[in-house]
Amino acid sequence: MGQNHLDQLTAVDASFLHNEGESSHMHVGAMTTFEGPAPPINDFLDQIRSRLHLVPRYRQKLVFPPLETSRPMWVDDSNFNLEYHIRHTALPDPGDEGQLLSMVGRIFSQRLDRSKPLWEMWLVEGLADDRFALITKTHHALIDGVSGVDLATVLFDLSSEPRKIEGGEEWIARAEPSSAELVAAGIRGWIGAGAEVVGRLARGMTQPAAALGAVREAVEGVGEVVWEGLNPAPVTPLNVEIGPHRRVAVVRNELDDYKRIKNALGGTVNDVVLAVVSGALASWLHSRGVRTEGMELRGLVPVSTRTADQHNQLGNQIAAVRGPLPVYIKDPVARLRFVKQAMDGVKESKQALGAEVIAGAQNFAPPTLLAQAARLNFSTRLFNLIVTNVPGPQFPLYVLGRELKDLFPVAFLPENHALAIAIMSYNGQLNFGLLADYDAMPDLDFLADAIVEARQELLVAAELAESVIATAEAKVEAKERSLAKTKRTTKTKTKTVGAKAKAKPSAGAKSRKILNVGALKR
What we know:
By secondary structure, this protein is of the alpha+beta class.
């Protein structure tokens, strides 16, 4: 899948458009901060302009075929204006992080204009400690979290010396298609999708055993997804009617802390993340007077289905599974063990495969039917909140010689979901970005503090486990040294006894010695 004129949205991409409303915005992004003064705006614009050809979709807008004969398509925007998408602003004194977070909240409260390419970037000056920020906002129909890491090639460098990018010829937009051309392109899309299915069927006929196995797994996967839907997520203060306005909070973490916890207590980094989120949500629910006995929240955990050869392509290739958030478990170690066991079960199950099969089937659904199915995918019956963890680069990145210091991802809020938690690792950090409805969660900072406390609980438990393991290993080593010493002592004694036995004369020798002495006397 390239990034071409008249590309049709996939069913997953289109679902984000269908789920967008006045209060539920489907854009995602990040708040990033850099050391050093901000670059001049013209230099920054030139930097983006020289690299924009690497992501042609950023100069394309959506068009909608007449009478909804097919899904929307991407076409070149003949009125593309880079200065519209790159915004330049500054914070007033003192330029602290609270002011920056308020600005991020306001920016994410505003829907993107669908008549233009679906992205914005804000260059923010005036931060304290001689820093500046970049705030990015991109519609989810354009990009998902995993491919988003690849898009850093547009902006970031691996060293403080900006690299030269080849191939940035003058861009000329292709003509916007007529209604008839849109209908024809939609028909070609249906034919292409049908041909792909026929191709799969043909391949299946050549390998019937493998094909039957794949079909059986797909059916089982769909069944597991349906079963999950029949077991609704619990009702909580997180699932209320939301408005258009947003709050944002951030939590800084060290990736090594999470690795230390998983190495000492078991699981993966993602298991530790879900356990920390569970503990923090439990504290937050208690602060709201909600009883959590027997309550297990559901987190919507996106899973990338992107293959290695698709890694530089835009568009969403993701499936979503329901991750457990056991807020009823008080002990942090027991909570982590539960999450690990449950997520192991999810990985062994076919939830992700089932979700992918359903998404693939939606490629054949008429747009009106697809819109209804998309709304079901984001139903509060299925999950309480989004929790997405995206791996990022573990080395420093630069923009025009300025080093990126902090990166905080920002997710989106579906209808009737007041909280989304996005996590991303970068250069030894594992930072959380919390997005919440402004009115439903005035206590978002409480939750941010609770995340820190939940992490510290697990760190203390990990230190204790390390201490117990170290003590046990020391005892084993001491016992091994003692046994080795005993063996050496026993061996030495054996050699000594043997030597003495050789040195001690026998009875016959003594008798001969006495006789010899007597002979001398005679």
